[in-house]
Amino acid sequence: MSVIAFDGITVAADRQATRADKPTTTKKLIKLSSGIVVGFTGDIDKGMTLVRWFEDGERKNEFPSFQLTDNWVRLIVFKPDTIYFYESTPDAIEVLDEKTAFGCGADLAIGAMAMGANAIKAVEIASLHNINCGMGIDWFMIR
Predict the structure, then answer these.
(1) Which of the 8 DSSP states describes residue 62?
(2) CATH topology for 3-137?
(3) What residue segments make up the domains of the chain, in order of their start?
(4) What angle do CA 4, 90, 69 make, to 5 degrees?
């Protein structure tokens, strides 16, 4: 499970993955060689497959077949001028909100940002109050 928060300037994500009921540390927020930052919520292996799909040009006819099942993964793309995500189709969904969050800790992160926290602090707060989030924080400035 995950929490990814964006406060209008910075994006932050927790590092926790769960393997055999044991928390382990990984990365869910990645800065690509193009400078674009992507993040994902859901299974790590599927998330990394979606990252490669995105890097290879987002070709609709090569959209990973697991995304068409009930076990899809969300891929979020953070560019300076736009944020969008993919879920169960290869069609991008644009985010128009100034502040947003994704994953099982999203409600906690949105609440924290509504009370003045930045994205990093919001992920920290979500990690304190959601057993599926934690193990550190990665973050990048987007704007």
Answers:
(1) G
(2) Glutamine Phosphoribosylpyrophosphate, subunit 1, domain 1 (3.60.20)
(3) 3-137
(4) 80
Provide the 8-state DSSP code for 33. Answer: T
Model confidence over 29-71: pLDDT tens digits? 999 999 999 999 999 999 999 999 999 999 999 999 999 999 9
How far apart CA 101 and CA 130 sit, in angstroms, is 14
Q: How far apart are CA 89 and CA 8, in angstroms?
A: 26
pLDDT in tens, 65-106: 999 999 999 999 999 999 999 999 999 999 999 999 999 999
CA-closest candidate to residue 109, choices 86, 132, 88: 132
- Contacts of residue 142, Cβ cutoff 8 Å, sequence gap at least 6: 6, 9, 10, 11, 37, 78, 79, 80, 83
Q: Are 105 and 130 in contact (CB under 8 A)?
A: yes
Closest of 137, 143, 125 to residue 29, by C-alpha? 137
The overall pTM is greater than 0.85? yes
In this structure, how many other beta carbons lie within 10 angstroms of the beta carbon of residue 124? 21
